[in-house]
Design brief:
By secondary structure, the chain is an alpha/beta fold. 34% of the residues lie in helices and 16% in strands. Helix 7 crosses helix 10.
Length: 341
């Protein structure tokens, strides 16, 4: 039986927003198994998607061509019998793999000089980029200028089994009977995307003062240690799990959370795909480009004249796009998504 290969992006949020592409491919060929070649750190995201048959963890070092290793890996892929491949990263090195494997249909964006390697080539307009869900979903269709917008596409969807959820709660000593609110105060992209740590701390104090049994957990990677340390110093009752969970455990904890407060980050999009109540905080990025799709969600965005700048650091030095969103504003939205039915 022919199979489909998806080559995953390196970013967690992008992987989540690519899930509607898998839904469309499954609708077109329900009998065709879908495999995903993904970096180790992104693999748990794909493992939580029902359309995926097998996740193959990429053995390549980030940023390295590794020509010999790619040729060897391509020989293994050739034996799996792929009819088509969808190359989601825009780099040359990932487009090499399905070409070397002799996969007949190789779909992707123009990217990094990939003529010949990609033989069904799509184009995006850098001056008016497609929303991320549309960007990936378009690959299931013939290349064209106009693509469906997110409201007409399947929403990203992930699922966590009850056993994994229960194990994560036990391991990290979280009480399933008490309210659980998750904060994602980091942003891998850069500091411009981060709501100030002192604001997260103020929000935590307000929420815990109102309901003493509220459990607030910080989720993220070890790279967020400076931000989480500042929050803990200002709000001692918060639990820091950033860097202390695997991504699979973080996904399970988010699946149980009563609400999520997050910067524009991969964990935000995981919460969205798990259909959790979300308050998303945007500053240098456009919420229309990569919004949450939960039934209960709110996006806070001031839309300043300088935004969205899409820069890693605030180019003007004031960071007003995030500093202007107060803890009280966020708390009101948290209360709304918790109460909304």
């Amino acid at each position: 039986m022919p199979r489909t290969l998806i080559i995953s992006p390196n970013w967690i949020g992008d992987a989540v927003m690519a899930q509607p592409l898998l839904r469309l491919l499954k609708d077109a060929h329900p009998e065709r198994p879908i495999d995903v070649l993904a970096p180790t750190w992104v693999a748990p995201v794909w493992q939580a998607m029902g359309e995926v048959d097998t996740v193959l963890e990429a053995p390549f070092r980030h940023g390295k061509l590794q020509w010999g290793e790619r040729r060897k890996y391509a020989r293994m892929l050739k034996q799996r019998g792929y009819a088509d491949a969808y190359v989601l990263p825009n780099t040359l090195k990932f487009a090499l793999i399905p070409w070397l494997a002799g996969i007949p249909k190789r779909v992707g964006y123009k990217g990094e000089m990939r003529y010949g390697l990609i033989n069904v080539m799509h184009h995006d307009d850098p001056k008016a980029p497609r929303p991320m869900v549309s960007f990936y979903a378009a690959l299931a269709m013939p290349p064209k200028r106009d693509v469906p917008l997110p409201p007409s596409l399947p929403r990203p969807a992930m699922a966590v089994d009850e056993q994994a959820l229960a194990q994560a709660l036990v391991r990290h000593r979280l009480d399933p009977k008490h309210r659980l609110i998750a904060f994602a105060p980091g942003a891998e992209f850069g500091s411009a995307k981060r709501w100030p740590a002192s604001y997260f701390a103020e929000l935590a104090r307000k929420l815990m003062a109102e309901r003493l049994e509220t459990q607030i957990v910080l989720l993220g990677s070890p790279k967020d240690s400076e931000v989480t340390a500042e929050i803990l110093a200002l709000a001692p009752g918060v639990r820091n799990l950033a860097g202390k969970t695997s991504l699979a455990e973080a996904i399970a904890i988010i699946a149980r959370a009563d609400a999520m407060v997050s910067n524009d980050s991969g964990l935000l999009h995981i919460a969205s795909a798990l259909n959790r109540p979300i308050v998303a905080i945007y500053g240098p990025t456009d919420p229309n480009h990569a919004p949450p799709f939960s039934d209960r969600s709110a996006s806070l965005y001031l839309g300043l004249e300088c935004a969205p700048c899409r820069q890693r650091e605030c180019p003007l030095g004031h960071h007003n796009c995030m500093r202007g969103i107060g803890a009280g504003m966020v708390k009101r939205e948290v209360e709304k998504v918790l109460l909304k039915v």
